[in-house]
Structure formats: structure tokens, C-alpha cells
Amino acid sequence: xxxLALDLARRGFGETNPNPMVGCVIARGGRIVARGWHGxxxxxxxxxxxxxxxxxxxxxxxxxxxxxxCSHLKKRTPPCAPALVRAGVxxxxxxxxxxxxxxxxxxxxxxxxxxxxVVSGVLEDDARALNVRFAVAQTWRxxxxxxxxxxxxxxxxxxxxGDSRWITSEKQRREARxxxxxxxxxxxxxGTVLSDDPLLLPSPRTKRPFFRIVLDSRLRLPLxxxxxxxxxxxxxxxxxxxGQAARRRRLEERGVTVLETVAKGGRVALKGALMSLWHxxxxxxxxxxxxxxxxxxxxxxxxDEVALFRAPLLLGGSRSLPAFGGPSPRRLGNxxxxxxxxxxxxxxxxxxx
Length: 353
Description:
Blueprint: H1 2-9, E1 23-28, E2 31-37, H2 46-54, E3 62-67, H3 80-87, E4 91-96, H4 106-113, E5 117-120, H5 124-130, H6 132-140, E6 144-151, E7 156-158, H7 170-180, E8 185-189, H8 190-196, E9 211-215, H9 226-229, E10 236-241, H10 245-253, E11 257-261, E12 263-264, E13 267-268, H11 270-279, E14 284-289, H12 291-300, E15 305-310, E16 321-322
Parallel strand pairs: 3-4, 4-5, 6-14, 6-15, 8-9, 8-14, 9-10, 10-11
Antiparallel strand pairs: 1-2, 1-3, 7-16, 12-13
């Protein structure tokens, strides 16, 4: 049943942000009587949807939900734990505890005080993996950060002239646009905007607001760029340094939101930028480059996942642009060791004839 609850939760992919993905199954005597999921932020929670579908059949039933039922009132929808008590359910099986400090065990405690049996930690690793972005944001009080790069086999993202279209295949690019949907927004440096004039939208489009973010210390974002021209249709946020009132006013007149933060080395301080975005409501961020921005996040260790889209190309050249620029480490011991899929001992490739 918990596996089904997780599958139901995934139906909210890309639309529940900044809320978690949650699914709920209500069963009696081993038979499902109702199911529900959280479809979008501001909409009914999974438990509420399942209880509405179950009606009186919920009394004495077992509820399976991948995230602890909420108990706090600081949100747009009624809390779920009291609703389960009122429905008269007998048992609640939970995938993982809610890391939101406003919940954090209080939902399960409320159920137990009402005499409801609570079992937690069922398929917990799967439940945590599903909502890792939500969990990181709630635990560290900053947006979850995914670094994404499209690279050649020798780790390059462009030639020395900046030519990068296209390193990866159309299928890989479609998957990258789909991956954007899992986040509240996508961020690039101003260099990427000036060279590529990207639109930075997910595909398919989300019904919720999706933020396009530019890290731009000197507010060089062109008023003629596709980002600015589309800012009233899909939000654009520029994170910059203080003291550029005239340029800020021109961008804001066109619908762009400008957030000011502190400097580090003459550039936007990444930690300050993340805090500004957190206070603006963003809980997860996909950083797409360029190389200096990705390298700065790497050097600062301000990221949680890396997605590398590799293409069977060898670019070569000492001036070709690396995926991760930024500060250069002095020793191999300064490298960041990653965890993830097992790497092969070696890969064998052949030049196309």
C-alpha cells in the first residue's frame, strides 16, 4: 500500500512546489476504499482528497501516507492530522517524518494522543528520495540546489569561442527541460544570458509560477533579452549587488524582480543569493551555468545534487570551456568526492567512421 501511495504522490510532480509530493491510500480488510494525492500547491492535501473519496468508509480504516500528516495552521489548507482523527481512522502508516519545523513529529503525536495506532518509517528511503528537495530546504533553511551541466566526455561545455549548440542530443535536452519542473526555478549567470539569450522555461510548462533567475552583479541583463520581454508572462528574478537604482528601475518597469544581496570578491555572494531567494519563496533551484557559476557553487560546497548530461564528443583544446570553472584547487585532496551510481572501471569508445 505504501508503494501505491508513493506512486500516487508522483502524480503531483512539478506542480506541488514548494510543497512536497504526497499520496494517500485508505484501506479496510486489505481492500482499498479510497486514494488521493496532492495535485498542486494550495489545493487539497492527499489525506483530505482520500478522506473525501472514502466518506464513512474511512471509519476504522488504515491510512497509508508517504509523509507525516500535517498538524499546523500556518498554511492555506486545513491540517490533515485532526481530519484523520475526526474521520475515525484506526491506524496510520507513515513513510517519513515531516522535516518542516512546524510539524516534525507533531502530526504523529496528535494521532497517538487520539488513540490512533501510528507506524512510521515504512519505505522511508523511497519516501525521502521522492521529497529530497523539500527535506533539504526544510532542514537547512535554504533552497535545495541541483547543478546541471551538458558536457563532452572530456568535461567541456563549449569551445573557446563559446559555441555550445548543441553538445547533447534532443532527447537529453528534453529530459533537462523536464527536470526543471521538479524545482521552483532555474538559475544562470549573466554570461550565459549574454551569449545564449535563453528563455529557461520547463517543458511541459507548469501551472504554478516557475522562476527564471539571473545572477548579475552589475545588472547587465539586456532589456531586449527574451527573459525581460517575457517577464510579465513568467517571473524573472535578478540577484545583484546594491547601489544600481537606475538600472534596477528600468528592469522593474518591465516586470523583472530585482533582489539585492552582499558581495564576495566583487560578485554576488552565493550564500547571500540563496538566502534572498529563500525569503522570496524559492525552496529548490536548478543551476544551469555557465562554468564560472557552476564552479563557484562547487567551490563553496553550496549544492546538493549534480546532473551531468554527457555526450559522446571529445572537444579537446586548452582554451575550451570547462563545465566547472571558478577557483582552481591546489591539491587533489581538495576535490569533492561524490556518491551515486557505481562508475565502471573504464569506458570503451570508438571514433565514428
